[in-house]
Structure formats: C-alpha cells, structure tokens
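Need the bound structure for FNR, inputs here:
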Amino acid sequence: SILEKGILLGTPPVVTTNPNSLEEQAKKIMPKKGWEYIKGGAGEASTMDADRLAFRQWKIVPRVLTPTTPRDLSTTLFGERYDTPVLMAPIGVQSWYHDDKEIGTATACANLRVPFTLSTAASTNIEELVEKVPQGPKWFQLYWPLDEEITASILSRAKTNGFKVLVVTLDTWTLAWRPYDLDPASVPFIVGEGDEVGFNDPVFRRKFAERTDGETPEESKVQAGMYWCSEVFPGVSRSWEDLKILKKYWDGPIVLKGVLSVEDAKLAVQHGMDGVIVSTHGGRQLDGAVGSLDVLPDIADAVGDKITVMIDSGIRTGADVLKAVALGAKGVFLGRPVVYGLGIDGAAGAEAVIAGILADFDLTMGFSGAKTIGDIKRSLLKKVSYPG
Ligand code: FNR
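Answer from helper R.:
Posting the output first, comments after.
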C-alpha cells in the first residue's frame, strides 16, 4: 500500500518529512550549481509566491463519520489506469542535482507507479533512460525545435521508446528574465550543457556537423549549446496553426503545458488537443502572473468535460493535491520537491518525497471524507481571504 511504501512505516528517513524544511535541507546537500538553478523564479519571483498563495486561499472542510476505508486513489488518464492522480513534471538537466540524474527520478517514479515525464532538456538520453529504467509509465515533454526535421526525429525516438503522452511546453519559447542565471553572483554554466536528448539526436548531430566541418557536439560544446538553444528557445513564438506539425509526427495524446487562460484552453480544444497542464512553469517564466490554481477552476469549468485538465506549480503537500483535484485537475504534477529529494539522497530521496506526498494525500482524503477520487468535489473546499 501507499502507506507501507511511504515514510510513515519505513526506516527513519534521510529526507525530511517536513515540506517546509525540504528546500533548506536540499540547499545544504545538493551541488551549488543545481541549487542556484532550481531555487529561483523569474523577476522578483512574484509568480512563485502566487502559486503558493493560491493554494493557501483554499481550505478543506472535512467530514466526519463518513467511512473512507479502504480508499481507492486510482484514476484514468488517456485510457491508462494509474494508482493515483499524481505525476512527475518534466525537469531538465537533472545531472546538476545528483549523479543519479533522471535515472534516479524515473526509478523512484516507477517504484511507485507514478508516470515520469522526460524533458527535452534532460541530462539523460531517451534511449539510455529506457534502457536503464524500462519499467513504469513514461510521458515525453517537448521543447519544440524550430527545425521540423529535428522535431520529427526527437518525436520518433520518443514514440519508438514507448513514451505514451506528448507534453508540449509553450511558455518557454525563449528563456525569461532570470536573475539567478543573469546575475554576476550566479554559478556559470555552459549553455546547452547536459542537454543529452538534443546532443544525441542523429538529425541534430548531422546538421551540427554540416555547420562546423564535421564536429560533434562533444568536441564543441559551447557552439553546440548555442545551436541547440537557438532551436528550442529561439525567441520566436509559434501559432495555433503550427500544432498541425506536431499532429503529423505524433499520433498519441498531445497535452499543452503552460496554459493559464480560459481562451487558450478553448483554443486547445478547437485545435484537437487532448489535454492542458495549467502551469506557471514554477514561476520561472512570466513574473507577475496568476498562480496556476487561481485559474484552474475556470479552465476546468470551460473545457474539463472535453479534454483532460491537469496542473502543476506550487504543489507541496497532500492537501495541495486534494485541492487541485477538487478544483478540477485530473492529474497533478510534482516538480521541485522531488528534485530536492533527488539532490539530498539520489533515487531513494526522490522516492521518499513522492511516497511522502502520496501518503499525505491518502490521509488527507481520509480526513476529508473522500473514499475515491470521484468523491473529491469542489464542495469540500471553502475560499478564505486571510493572508497565509
Ligand atoms: C522546470 N520546468 C520544466 N518544464 C518543462 O516543460 N521542461 C523542462 O525542462 C523544465 N525544467 C525545469 C527545471 C527546473 C529546475 C524547474 C524548477 C522547473 C517546469 C516544471 O515542469 C514545472 O512546471 C514546475 O517545476 C512546477 O513548479 P514547482 O511545483 O516545481 O515549483
């Protein structure tokens, strides 16, 4: 059971069980470069604040004398049954946090049967990930290259290697104003370093060789990094019509990540998309934006009966997962906390964090009077207006 897998009945944890201490513990242990990169938000990080405040404004009104055992946390997404509505968000360059990198996080997810999303900016190649972690459900996140041939090649590799759902991130067509990367005090890194999915792509390699008289990305990292970034973060935004290109190369479900407006969610439906992830990218792109939970109920009301509405940004506890589900999310993605766990104790640390949040969610459901995911209704929540 989740409880047995979780930290409650396990050996004393290395990773703190206190969601408020996790970041501080990770800061002490994880490599400085990784810490500097993961902790920050765009601009003054006001979107990061909004993501958390949005969760704090909703409170659970629990029920008593409502039998909630045994509980069934299972749910179905795109025809696949999962044990819980919790998934792992795509997080790039995980070698910066721990040597276990994406293999550690994917192993943790597979052990708990939580879908793992591999980033286009991963430090683990598609083929290597699947070879080392063949078990467990896997989704693939695309940073969409300008070059259609490179796009087709990456998508075909993801498909061949068994990735089921395509997540297309739309809020990062260029990198944002990120003081933690731009400041003189930030830890310098080579652009594109650790981008194994791109650097190992045969079409990308061929095109790079053509530009450089036969060099490989490994021989000329800086140039390869610049070329790769000019493809995936080109500073040119796409249009709704361009989604046709993706449909040409991906016949499975396609989910748009970074949708915060009801109008865009409706356009996603009109353009034949299968789902949206309501997301602020963890507050790392547009500073001054709404929190993702702030807009979730409106988006769920507008399109929730037509496509699969999911959420990330600011999920830290079991109560957060319950609130997101109550406000219309069919899937809830964890981000930074799992990577803090990875940074603290590798695969085991990532697993401890996910298991902890699942155990907490299970308890939260029980205390709230919910026996199944279907019982988690909006009427379980009350909106308050006091700060914190
Ligand atoms: C991200 N995120 C992200 N998203 C994506 O689509 N592709 C990526 O490669 C990355 N990389 C990445 C790196 C780091 C260090 C962070 C913190 C985030 C965004 C991620 O998928 C998700 O939207 C956020 O992490 C959600 O916010 P919280 O809950 O982690 O704060």
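Comments: DSSP finds 16 helices and twelve strands in the chain. The pocket of FNR is lined by residues 37-38, 89-92, 119, 121, 141, 169, 257, 279, 281-282, 284, 312-315, 335-336 (CB under 6 Å).
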